[in-house]
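Researcher: Next sequence.
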Amino acid sequence: RDGAPWYFMEEKYPELGNLMPRDVVSREIWQIMNAPGAAQTVFLDMTHLPHDVMERRLADLVEDCITYLHADPRIEPVPVSPGVHYFMGGIQVDERHRTVFPGLYAAGECCCQYHGANRLGGNSTLGAVYGGGVAAESALLDNACRSGDNGFERYSKRTLEGILQRLAELRTGCRHFPVPGISAELSRILLDSLGIIRSGSQLETGISAVDRLMNEKVGNNYDPSCGPYENLNMESLCLLGKALLLSAYNRKESRGAHTRSDYPGRNDAMYKKYSVARFNGKEITIRFEVVPEERYV
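Model: Next structure:
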């Protein structure tokens, strides 16, 4: 600023500086980059870190910056920008990592358990190691207590039959758009609509764009250059993207990593709850569930 380096995080948050929570840092970077007449690039300065730290603890980071950014963080600031870092949600489970389907469990980043409106450092290890252990204990306990068929085998067989039928239908489809291109288009829609700061109108545009993408390119599409999984998964990715958009649209407040320009305040009375998205085979519905004050495992 004014021809000199401006450490805006240290200026605005003197106690923690750029060690503030990720959502705060991301919003500040976004606001700097999008301010009228502002520079389009923000830099992270690590040149003050001791040589031993850079060589031992951050060796991989140094190598990545040199390889992909052509900048050496040991001697110069490196450009940074907000980006997707972690998925703060997932398959709905109870405190024992059980899903709504008997005999099916979820742990790690794929499930919604240890996150609230933001990601806490170290939660990935918590979810994978501790959550994985709890899920395994639940599976053993449930199996030992089971007196008969819990329906999982029948459901699994029916699901597999449905997948094979769907794959056969896709292979005879009349469309042959490249799956990587559809995936890239979906990514662009979500990045444009679910940015660091989003609004109701942006989210509506994104929802309409996903619907249009599914109607025009995803339905009855089969890309012979990709495998069965990639072809089958494209519809699921679009549904997941739409569920994210609908969840953000229905949460008319700002909280943690979710910032709405049209609803800048937090509304605990209405939205101190989980967002739960359900797909019934035809449409996605969004509801909010109260977060329990305590959970007993």
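Model: Residues 123-145 form the longest helix (23 residues). Residues 190 and 241 are 7 Å apart (CA to CA).
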